[in-house]
Design goal:
The complex is a heterodimer of chains A (337) and B (532). Chain A has 337 residues and is mostly helical. In chain A, 75% of the residues lie in helices and 0% in strands. Chain A has 2 domains: 75 residues, no CATH class; 243 residues, MetI-like fold (Orthogonal Bundle). In chain A, α5 packs antiparallel against α6. In chain B, α12 runs antiparallel to α14, α17 packs antiparallel against α19 and α19 runs antiparallel to α20. Chain B is 33% helix and 21% strand. In chain B, the strands form 4 sheets. In chain B, strands 1, 8, 9, 10, 11, 12, 13, 14, 15, 16 and 17 form an 11-stranded mixed sheet that branches. Chain B is globular. Chain B folds into 3 domains: 128 residues, 3-Layer(aba) Sandwich (D-Maltodextrin-Binding Protein, domain 2); 123 residues, Dipeptide-binding Protein, Domain 1 (Dipeptide-binding Protein, domain 1), CATH 3.90.76; 219 residues, Dipeptide-binding Protein, domain 3. Classes of the chains: A mainly alpha (337), B alpha+beta (532). Chains A and B meet through α2, α3, α7, α9 and α11 of A and α2, β1, β8, β10 and α10 of B. Chain B: It is found in: Periplasm. Chain B: This is Solute-binding protein family 5 domain-containing protein. Chain B: Keywords: Signal.
């Protein structure tokens, strides 16, 4: 029990150190960036007296180290400060924007994994065949064509010409303001509100952005799965298993795959973390009010409270997913037990 | 044994989601909702006495009324809005406004002179970014209760520090900052002496055509028709959606998912010119694109160099090839559409003349200079065109691209040499631009006011004097004449090459009528808009 507590303690402290480092670096970058944060607060045309007043109010006259200390004290109280641009608490802004991103990311990752992993296995088993070639071209396209091109072409084909998906945004205009925000996840909120029409509307709106994001992620997952599987299939135990008369798929799924599953967990965790940062480009094209847009817009305006707050959140996401991956290792890898 | 065939069969058996079957029939937007796609970021508040950005001002303009409003047909005329009449005293220091009877706010409360007085007192006491438009008449938090007061329910008396041209005062009162808010409602929401700003940020208390239902930053603004606001079209709501990408806006317009696209690019506007389903509503905005030369730089302090640069630029070709849908050539400091604007073309490209001026200035072989510009289109294209024009006379401009705020920060710190940027006018009076471009009393680093001219270290006492004289002239006709004279002189005697004036376009579906655009964003209105 004691060693377990100890290891938990050291893990916790390393997480805290990571986050503190992240806060320091982000804060300092924000303050040395050649953008005056006062501009976002008062606008370019404000008279000098107002500018000076705002600078003092925002504490920007203090030395950097004092500003940072104030910020840390504030953070320690669980206060991320206010956004200059939205006038909201950063925490409440994040609570609004993050679910939008998370909803997309989660569905996109599941879709990407469900399609990507089998494709990768299939390509590895049929290495060199026409199947393998087709899958590889598919992956190369997904990974190398810029997302905004995929997104715009997707909109053009499926929204404008075929008319089978709705346009950009999270919901149809008729549902605007009808669904009370409880969790921020529109699919969940619509179920809570008991509005089936709104639920399907939300699902429809997610369809295309999810497909674009998951195609992009799938390309990576498939490639990695294929590479891992090729390595595993070369093992002597595979030859032995086949020699004993087991069917090809029994060997592939029963013997080779469990060995690559552990590596795949890392790939999936990283892909998910990447998606959770918010895909600025996808969000822009699909008018999706997510974390990526929030972060970018704040950064462009030198609005540092949201930038640091969002960065810390993304830091937590990475740390959290890392921990989750570690835990899953224990489940899938007998050696770790 | 699992062969390829039974693998495929298994896969096909998985339930596949068919969007085709789930998809509800998509129709055009409902007739009582106007859906607008617009870039809604860079907006910090919807409190009309704090808001100082284009989009925020526009939304406020749709929710609030002012004492008076400028006429869009005749720039020299001021129309009554909340006030039905006004008069100035002999000494031009006391102005009496009669507030029309029977006006009511969205809440149902009566709109009286007390609301008008309190609103202006609130402006002065809060002293936010746009407050100078009102405080420049000598109001301070200490004296405002005395100098702006309601003598009865229908009479508002304003006393200025100095004798004031009534036109100047009226135009300033017509700006967004002069919005009349409902005293009883806003006062009830005040916390810790904030005059209700925290509340009015995201709520409304006006008498305009619309009320604010909800504003979710960088997402949606939803306006409801004010039942007491006199709106009589088909609409019940106006929903503005934050759609950043102009291509997305165009696709949604084509599909009928939105009624109006507000941020289309030059190429997109051109492609819609012959589209039978779309009307293009266009209006020149009081926003100028210009090159500033920092006079603190030795080379750029020479008036002959200013002239050389102005003669070197090919304005027409830049307008035709890069900015045809979004800008027109305009070369004086007061934009077209505002009182007193001079629309004369002072400069066209003349390479020989520019070269001769350079030689006279002592730079027969030109010089090298840095040239900052915004990174968002069309600025990079325009900067490149100017770069190649300048190269023809021997001036080598090194382009430095930066995010909007980054470029502005550099300019405000006077660290630039040459810069391509934009300037938007604050209120509907020639003094708005003349003030910032001309009046600079103190060029020092810690000057009390840092007008636009200061940013390029430009201080010319004659120009300052001319601008002050025009501002204070009480005879309206003479005042305009002074401004005309000032603009002509300024064009040839300043380090600013004013190049273009912005035109804004609202691309509307054919069934939408009555969208009104104005030179200043607070005049852009949906109050007459209706859908068939």
């Amino acid at each position: 029990m004691i060693p377990k507590l100890k290891s938990f303690g050291s893990m916790l402290s390393s997480v805290l150190v990571t986050l503190l480092g992240l806060a320091i670096v982000t804060f300092m970058i924000g303050r040395v960036m050649p953008v005056d944060p006062v501009l976002a607060a008062v606008g370019d045309n404000a008279p000098e007296s107002v500018v000076l007043q705002a600078r003092a109010d925002m504490g920007l006259d203090d030395p950097l180290i004092v500003q940072f200390w104030h910020y840390l004290v504030q953070l320690a109280h669980g206060d991320f400060g206010r956004s200059v641009l939205t006038h909201n608490e950063v925490a409440s802004d994040i609570a609004h924007y993050f679910p939008a991103t998370m909803e997309l990311a989660t569905v996109a990752l599941i879709l990407a994994a469900v399609i990507g992993v089998p494709l990768g296995i299939w390509a590895a088993v049929r290495q060199g065949s026409i199947t393998d070639q087709v899958i590889r071209v598919l992956c190369l396209t997904g990974h190398s064509v810029p997302v905004f091109v995929l997104a715009l072409v997707g909109l053009l084909i499926f929204y404008v010409f075929l008319d089978i998906v709705p346009g950009p945004g999270r919901q149809d205009i008729i549902y605007e303001g009808m669904i009370p925000s409880v969790t921020g996840f529109l699919t969940i909120d619509t179920i809570l509100a008991g509005d089936a029409g709104a639920f399907w509307d939300a699902v429809h709106h997610m369809a295309l952005p999810v497909c674009i994001l998951s195609y992009f992620s799938m390309a990576y997952i498939t490639r990695m799965t294929r590479a891992f599987m090729l390595g595993a299939l070369k093992g002597e135990y595979i030859v032995a298993a086949r020699a004993k008369g087991l069917s090809l798929w029994a060997v592939v799924l029963g013997h080779a795959f469990p060995n690559v599953a552990v590596q795949l967990i890392t790939v999936l965790a990283l892909t998910y973390a990447g998606l959770l940062e918010g895909a600025v480009v996808t969000e822009t094209v699909f008018a999706w009010p997510g974390l990526g847009q929030y972060l970018t817009n704040s950064l462009m305006n030198g609005d540092m409270n949201p930038v640091v707050g969002t960065t810390l959140l993304i830091g937590c996401v990475y740390v959290g997913l890392n921990l989750l991956a570690d835990l899953l290792y224990r489940v899938f890898d007998p050696r770790v037990k | 044994m699992l062969t390829r065939r039974n693998f495929l069969a298994t896969a096909a058996a998985f339930p596949t989601v068919s969007y085709l079957s789930l998809n509800a029939a998509m129709a055009d937007t409902p007739n009582d909702i106007l859906v607008v796609a617009q870039q809604l970021d860079n907006m910090t508040t919807l409190d009309p006495h704090v808001s100082f950005e284009a989009v925020g001002s526009e939304i406020c303009g749709n929710m609030y009324q002012n004492l008076v409003k400028p006429s869009l047909e005749n720039a020299d005329e001021v129309l009554p809005e909340v006030a039905e009449s006004w008069e100035a005293s002999e000494d031009s220091k006391t102005f009496t406004f009669k507030i029309a009877q029977g006006q009511i706010f969205a809440s149902g409360g009566a709109l009286t002179a007390e609301d008008c007085a309190w609103s202006l007192q609130r402006v002065v006491s809060l002293n936010k970014s746009p407050a100078f438009i009102i405080t420049q008449f000598g109001f301070t938090p200490e004296n405002v209760v005395e100098r702006i007061r309601a003598t009865d329910a229908q009479t508002l008396v304003i006393t200025t520090e100095e004798p004031t041209a009534i036109g100047f005062l009226l135009y300033c009162l017509s700006a967004n900052i002069g919005s009349v808010v409902e005293k009883a409602v806003v006062e009830a929401e005040a916390v810790d002496g904030d005059w209700g700003t925290a509340w009015l940020d995201k709520n409304s208390a006006g008498s305009g055509a619309f009320t604010l239902q909800v504003w979710r930053p960088s997402d949606t603004i939803s306006l409801n028709v004010n039942p007491n606001g006199g709106y009589d079209g088909s609409l019940q709501r106006v929903i503005l959606r934050h759609i950043i990408d102009p291509s997305t806006q165009q696709l949604m317009l084509a599909k009928g998912d939105i009624d109006i696209a507000r941020n289309l690019t030059t190429q997109q506007i051109e492609s819609l010119a012959d589209n039978a389903d779309v009307d293009l509503i266009r209006k020149k905005q009081a926003s100028l694109m210009l090159v500033s030369m920092n006079a603190a730089n030795e080379t750029l302090s020479n008036p002959k160099i200013w002239e050389a640069v102005k003669w070197a630029i090919d304005y027409d070709s830049i307008q035709k090839n890069i900015l045809s849908g979004t800008h027109d050539v305009h070369q004086s400091i007061i934009p077209e559409g505002l009182p007193g604007a001079v629309n004369e073309v002072f400069f066209t490209q003349d390479i020989e003349k520019a070269k001769a001026l350079l030689a006279e200035a002592g730079y027969p072989d030109g010089f090298t200079i840095t040239f900052d510009h915004y990174s968002a289109q069309p600025y990079p294209d325009v900067a490149q065109a100017i770069q190649s024009d300048l190269a023809k006379v021997g001036i080598k401009a090194e382009l430095i691209s930066g995010e909007n705020r980054q470029v502005l920060t550099k300019m405000r710190a006077r660290e630039h040499q040459m810069i391509l940027s934009a300037w938007g006018t604050d209120y509907f009076d020639p003094n708005a631009n003349a003030d910032v471009f001309c009046i600079n009393y103190d060029n020092s680093e810690d000057a009390a006011t840092k007008p636009f001219a200061w940013r390029s270290s430009f201080k010319d006492d004659k120009i300052t004097e001319m601008a002050v004289a025009a501002r204070d002239e009480r005879d309206p006709k003479k005042r305009i004449e002074l401004y005309v004279e000032l603009q002509k002189y300024y064009a040839h005697n300043s380090p600013f090459a004013i190049m273009m004036q912005k035109t804004t376009t609202a691309a509307c579906r054919k069934n939408v009528t009555g969208v009104e655009l104005a030179p200043l964003p607070d005049g852009n209105s949906y109050a007459e808009t209706t859908k068939a």
